[in-house]
């Protein structure tokens, strides 16, 4: 990846974080921790990897993304807005009775959303269906599913994993946002699921591991996944829940809580400082 | 009126308060203990609390096994996930073998608010009612919830308990002689022109509707039907006979819930007009809880309007 693209993606990821924070604050409700952990992953997907056209959001040949950890819709909506699917200002109506930005991704009302999600464990199955359809139709689009490491406790995820392997869905790539936390605490305490790499390997998947905040590494893994044949690929992305806001990092308490005005100012200032620095560097 | 408290909060406290008296009580949750408010029990009785992770189907199955060995498990998540996700486990592993599992669904109905349609379960009464032998209960306030938890511990068999997210006024503590009994509704307000049969947080709204209608000279009876199944048919038929028309109100799809249960009851024995008030066969949406309720007409005025309709049908 050249320096220019890296800079541009880093800047976009910073904007995703800011917009997600603004949306959650405006709604005084929403899931900020997992939105911040998944921001870099979604940025690389939408701005480096995927073929999508905001002017033609339902193009049959487009790549597809299912945010299976649907509660982190603030990050998804932010990425879609930045990509040009709808104006950023509309995000002020996130979770509002006046708007159409429901708490969890809604494919009926929000342009660019490929699947309605929110009930954990279900998105990956729909993504498998999309990948199967791609194979049936001999289309070369790719399908991505983004999951939480708490979410994969759902049995359905492993049912989908078996099906994806059975049908050799090498047009399918799952990314797990391994931030180590869920609602009731650390995933290691609530329901230990490691070793994830060995689990997916034994389910006949290709397994890649990356630092989920290293934009170049995420992009390289996604590029590589597109070349791996015969089996689906999972990218285990090690992340920090709340990444980018010091007092939210690695704290399960920030899973589904909106900041108060004071906390918001503090968080905004931290994110704004990063943005400003990146914007200066870009000049 | 008593304190304002969410029924989920009263539920969480009741579990802790009853733990010593019922040593077989065990609690399971699916990574939502801070929301279902089983976290107090988890802290006080860690060896009797099982966090099963985000895996509701397995949780319900495990609860069935615990019950088969004499425990009294309460299995918790949002209503959408215990009842919705694990419906078939409830049906085949709990109800069919008549196991003593209490399936608990917190955040029932539209008052989930901001999380939106994917989390707003308005189908739980319908699905749980349709399972043979299942008790379906949804107390309207903290006082009633506290009593319901004890009654469900004393009841040996499968049951579903719906909890609400929002803080609601306590209304049952002011009723003289109030006594909670599973399967027995409570007349909260006398009235002779029409009867409203309400469940959950619609009880408080029905009481407010009665005030609105009193100003119009309408005497509205208000019945708190905390147990949707088995339905208190005696109380329903008494209301039908004495008032001549009924409105049901519930934070639930008008299909399959309390309204249809009441219709089925009166149609065979004392056919009077029944107008159903609830969610009109549509999905919910995001917004502040009270705004969402208002958007769908789940307000005192919404109930009053249905009562006016029922009165017209009665005269016509
Ligand atoms: C089936 C289902 N059960 C429970 C929930 C409630 N819930 C929302 S987010 C969450 C925790 C998710 O943890 P994780 O997947 O690790 O997400 P992240 O940490 O990335 O936010 C839970 C239990 C849900 N949305 N769906």
Describe this structure in words.
The complex is a heterodimer of chains A (283) and B (316). With 283 residues, chain A is α/β, with parallel strands linked by helices. Chain A has one domain: Thiamin diphosphate (ThDP)-binding fold, Pyr/PP domains (Rossmann fold, 3-Layer(aba) Sandwich), CATH 3.40.50.970. Helices cover 43% and strands 10% of the residues of chain A. Chain A contains 9 helices and 5 strands. Chain A has helices spanning 3-27, 33-49, 73-83, 123-136, 155-166, 187-190, 196-202, 215-225, 261-282; strands at 64-67, 143-148, 172-178, 206-211, 233-238. In chain A, helix 8 (215-225) links the parallel strand 4 (206-211) and strand 5. Chain A is globular and about 50 Å long. The two termini of chain A are 19 Å apart. The mean pLDDT of chain A is 98. With 316 residues, chain B is of the alpha/beta class. Chain B has 2 domains: 4-169, 3-Layer(aba) Sandwich (Rossmann fold); 183-313, Rossmann fold, CATH 3.40.50. Chain B is built from 13 helices and 14 strands. Chain B has helices at residues 7-18, 33-36, 39-44, 56-68, 79-85, 87-95, 124-129, 142-154, 202-214, 233-243, 258-269, 289-295, 300-315; strands spanning 4-6, 25-29, 49-51, 72-78, 102-106, 135-137, 159-162, 167-169, 186-189, 194-198, 220-224, 227-229, 246-253, 274-279. In chain B, the strands form 3 sheets. Chain B has a 7-stranded mixed beta sheet with strand order 3-2-4-5-7-6-12, with helices on both faces. In chain B, strand 13 (246-253), helix 11 and strand 14 form a beta-alpha-beta unit. In chain B, helix 1 packs across helix 8 and helix 9 (202-214) packs across helix 13 (300-315). The A-B interface holds A 27, 29-30, 70, 95-99, 101-104, 106, 116-121, 150-151, 153-155, 182-184, 190-191 and B 29, 31-35, 39, 51-55, 57-58, 80-81, 84-85, 113-119, 285-288, 291-292, 295. Thiamine diphosphate sits between chains A (31, 33-34, 37, 69, 71-72, 118-121, 148-151, 177, 179, 181-183, 241, 255) and B (31-32, 54, 81, 85).
């Amino acid at each position: 990846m050249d320096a220019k693209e890296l800079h541009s993606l880093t800047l976009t990821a910073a904007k995703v974080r800011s917009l997600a924070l603004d949306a959650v604050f405006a709604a005084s409700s929403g899931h900020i921790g997992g939105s911040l952990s998944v921001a870099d992953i979604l940025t690389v997907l939408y701005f480096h990897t995927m073929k999508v056209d905001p002017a033609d959001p339902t193009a049959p040949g487009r790549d597809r993304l299912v945010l299976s950890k649907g509660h982190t819709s603030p990050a998804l909506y932010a990425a879609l807005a930045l990509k040009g699917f709808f104006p950023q200002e509309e995000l002020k109506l996130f979770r509002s009775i006046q708007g159409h930005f429901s708490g969890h991704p809604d494919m009926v009302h929000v342009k660019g959303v490929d699947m309605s999600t929110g009930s954990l464990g279900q998105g990956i199955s729909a993504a498998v269906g999309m990948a199967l359809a791609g194979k049936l139709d001999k289309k070369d689009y790719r399908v991505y599913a983004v999951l939480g490491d708490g979410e994969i406790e759902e049995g359905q995820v492993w049912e989908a994993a078996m099906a994806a392997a059975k049908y050799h869905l090498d047009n399918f790539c799952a990314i797990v946002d391994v931030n180590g936390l869920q609602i009731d605490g650390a995933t290691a305490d609530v329901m230990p699921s490691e070793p994830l790499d060995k689990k997916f390997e034994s389910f006949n998947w290709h397994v890649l591991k990356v630092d989920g905040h290293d934009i170049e590494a995420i992009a390289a893994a996604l590029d590589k996944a597109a070349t791996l044949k015969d089996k689906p690929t999972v990218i285990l992305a090690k992340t920090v829940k709340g990444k980018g806001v010091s007092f939210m990092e690695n704290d399960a308490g920030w899973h589904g809580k909106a900041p108060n005005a004071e906390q918001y100012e503090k968080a905004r200032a931290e994110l704004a400082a990063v943005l400003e620095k990146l914007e200066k560097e870009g000049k | 009126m008593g304190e304002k408290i969410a029924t989920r909060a009263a539920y969480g406290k009741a579990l802790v308060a009853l733990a010593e008296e019922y040593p077989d009580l065990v609690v399971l949750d699916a990574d939502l203990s801070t929301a279902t408010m089983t976290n107090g029990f988890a802290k006080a009785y860690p060896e009797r609390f099982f966090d099963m992770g985000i895996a509701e189907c397995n949780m319900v199955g495990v609860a069935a096994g615990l019950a088969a060995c004499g425990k009294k498990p309460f299995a918790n998540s949002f209503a959408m996930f215990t009842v919705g996700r694990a419906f078939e486990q409830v049906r085949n592993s709990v109800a069919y073998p008549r196991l003593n599992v209490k399936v608990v669904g917190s955040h029932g109905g539209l008052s989930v608010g901001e999380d939106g349609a994917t989390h707003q379960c308005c189908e739980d009464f319908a699905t749980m009612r349709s399972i043979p032998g299942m008790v379906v209960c949804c107390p309207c306030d903290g006082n009633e919830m506290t009593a319901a938890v004890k009654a469900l511990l004393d009841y040996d068999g499968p049951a579903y308990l719906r909890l609400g997210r929002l803080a609601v006024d306590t209304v049952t503590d002011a009723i003289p002689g109030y006594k909670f009994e599973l399967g027995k509704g409570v007349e909260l307000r006398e009235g002779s022109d029409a009867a409203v049969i309400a469940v959950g947080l619609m009880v408080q709204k029905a009481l407010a509707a009665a005030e609105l209608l009193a100003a119009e000279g309408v005497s509205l009876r208000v019945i708190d039907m905390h147990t949707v199944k088995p339905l208190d048919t005696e109380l329903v038929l008494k209301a039908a006979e004495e008032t001549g028309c009924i409105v049901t109100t519930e934070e639930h799809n008008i299909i399959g819930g309390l309204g249809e249960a009441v219709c089925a009851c009166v149609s065979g024995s004392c056919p009077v007009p029944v107008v159903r008030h609830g969610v009109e066969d549509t999905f919910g949406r995001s917004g502040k809880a009270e705004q969402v309720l208002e958007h769908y007409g789940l307000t005192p005025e919404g109930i009053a309007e249905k009562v006016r309709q029922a009165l017209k049908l009665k005269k016509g």
